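Exercise 7. Given the encoded structure of a 269-residue chain, write a plausible sequence.
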């Protein structure tokens, strides 16, 4: 069977009408090919689905053939240890929505056939020699013990804060060094240089209220995810301290920030 060319693929996607209960309701996007990621974003929005950039809070990642990141995939899998994750090519997602049948209902061998020669599949399957090393296409990333020597905010190493050198926990940095990294993340775009374009757009401009919101929300989410874990007690102490510092240093004096978003609370039920 001859695969769809790009114009045919685009036509099918643009005219697809699928109930919201078919396929995932929240989808993360990474990479291009056959279509640019923004075309998928617009089509999924039109279907009433929520679209995100890669993070550890959602289970379905839609990947293209180009401009995807091994580092972000590895960090996503690390952050979702013990949780479900579905990594789907654009071709697989189109088939899923068109047939209204999840490809993951089939056997692992059939799923591998659907991936074909996709470069992300080769990476996941270990064909490139530096894959993630789990039983693809299993839907659950195995839970493995970790001494968690250095915790990076956001759960994925190429994130804004980790790129700025922000580290917490037992092997993290002292307060002045952490806050210098937070200031770099907020005031400079240097930490964004190696991030994919969608993530750079998501982080907003340097010194903007959006940049401050992204940083504060990332820290608050990590605090809540780790608050019941004894091994993250020191990291949580650092996050709590640094979130307070950010609020006093930048948020209180920024009228736009106070207008457009509420500062995250760590004491909410």
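Solution.
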């Amino acid at each position: 069977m001859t695969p769809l060319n790009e114009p045919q693929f685009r036509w099918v996607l643009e005219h697809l009408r699928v109930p919201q209960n078919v396929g995932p309701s929240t989808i993360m996007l990474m990479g291009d090919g056959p279509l640019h990621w923004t075309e998928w974003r617009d089509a999924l929005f039109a279907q009433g689905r929520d679209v995100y950039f890669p993070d550890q809070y959602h289970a379905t990642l839609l990947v293209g053939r180009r401009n995807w990141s091994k580092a972000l995939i590895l960090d996503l899998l690390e952050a979702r240890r013990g949780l479900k994750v579905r990594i789907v090519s654009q071709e697989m997602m189109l088939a899923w929505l068109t047939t209204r049948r999840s490809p993951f209902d089939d056997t692992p061998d059939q799923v591998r056939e659907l991936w074909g020669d996709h470069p992300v599949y080769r990476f996941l399957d270990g064909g490139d020699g530096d894959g993630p090393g789990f039983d693809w296409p299993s839907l659950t990333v195995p839970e493995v013990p970790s001494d968690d020597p250095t915790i990076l905010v956001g759960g994925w190493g190429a994130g804004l804060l980790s790129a700025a050198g922000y580290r917490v926990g037992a092997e993290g940095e002292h307060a002045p060094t952490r806050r210098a990294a937070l200031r770099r993340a907020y005031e400079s775009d240097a930490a964004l240089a190696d991030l994919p374009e969608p993530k750079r757009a998501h982080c907003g401009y340097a010194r903007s209220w959006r940049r401050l919101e992204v940083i504060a929300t990332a820290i608050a989410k990590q605090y809540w995810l780790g608050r019941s874990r004894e091994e993250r007690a020191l990291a949580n102490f650092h996050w709590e301290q640094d979130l307070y510092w950010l609020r006093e240093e930048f948020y209180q004096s920024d009228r736009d920030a106070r207008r457009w978003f509420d500062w995250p609370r760590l004491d909410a039920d």
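Remark. Confidence is low (pLDDT under 50) at residues 144-158. Students should compare their own answers with the one above.
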